[in-house]
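[READ THE FOLD]
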Amino acid sequence: MNRSAVPILLGLLTLSACSSQPVDTEVTRCVFADSPRTPAPAFMCDPNITGFPVTVLLASEPSSDSVSARIEQTLSNQISLWAMDWSQAWYTSEVGQQAAHAFLMSVLSDEARVVRSRTSPKGFLWLLVGLPMTVANLQSMTLDAVPLTQL
């Protein structure tokens, strides 16, 4: 073997050793659901965010609407869904559900946030919506504002 081939051979061995080691980065552990070959941020697969005990990952389909309009609409839809689900779960009477829904809409509109967002290569807007309180805390607040005994 000639002397010029030795450094090349050593370089190739070094590169092959490096490539066989696992890569541990935030991006490589997760992919976009709509673009499974594209690395995504960690929140796509692990939505646990400090300070937000309640989180939900949502997608907004590609559209001609602005990103801010898509964010507002997706957040608004999630707030409405949470308010409807929780008011129906916590109250049996229609009057109680309506009062709780109105209270929850107000609180959730003030408290719910888009914690993270990212657009996938296919144009889907991925949003992590979070609530900075537990469901138990929110239920307690709701029951204080709309007592079951008065319905």
User: Anything to note?
Assistant: Residues 87 and 111 are 17 Å apart (CA to CA).
